[in-house]
Amino acid sequence: MKKRVLTAIGCVGLLAVLAAAGFGERKTAEEVREPEPSPASRSLFCWDSDTLSGDDLGSLCTVLDRAGISEVYHSIPEEMLLSGGADEFLSAMGDRGTAVYLLDGDAEWAWESGGESLIYRLDLILEANAALPEEDRIRGLMADVEPYLLEDWDDEEGRADLLDRYAQGVETAYRCAQENGLELLLCVPSFYDSACPELLDRIVSDGCDGIAVMNYDRTDEYGQMADEVELAREHGKRVICIAELQAPGRHELTEINTYYGVGLRPLLASWEVLADRFDYSGLSFSYHYYAPLLELLEDGSGLSLPESPEA
Q: pTM value?
């Protein structure tokens, strides 16, 4: 496997140029503009490589139609991405006008102050896109990096160093994404606003095009992401509200964390309320993830879905 270092080296050199051009500087209130209304009022996380081709791809397309999904965050193995093994999937999404983002991440990436693993994935996207027609190209990276899973999160001094490294890494990767016409989206938990508000402000303002908030508490879905939406509004960034669909018992999920037991109609009703209350054009909504969504649709709980909520 050839080692991709050119992009990382080039991006380190780009930082001085970007700083001189004003990248990373805080904008005034007058300069901040809300994102255009999102074309992806609903999106989907998918980790299943079987859906990249054949009958399973057909099943995925059916789910996208039935659930009103127009944006997909899909895990794609590197060898498939570079060998053309994902081309059938990307072509199908291109024909549908469905935006695709590579879904990848690891908690250990949070230690990389240079954003090496994030930049590596951005480089993979660029290499894959070079062989694809424009309509089939991957838009960017949905980075699922969870520093709170690391031991140092529980140590006050260790956490401070960890979070500073993580912030530096996403800032560097974001500049690389911007320079190469790609987007960088970051998965975040709903507790950053209370556990590490400085980090949240930093990564929203200077480290991404948008955040995807794991809003997994059905008792207070508005309060769980109110701060995140206001930060996104302040900086003109996207914010994606993720709903959990997995069955309780997995990953310590309880009934209150997931819509598995209550079905899709209450979820869609909740999204309509959130869209109305937040009234922010950069807000959109996402299902986590494909397999349980397929199950809910097959058992009838998601039949005849209402129209997508306006973001």
A: 0.87
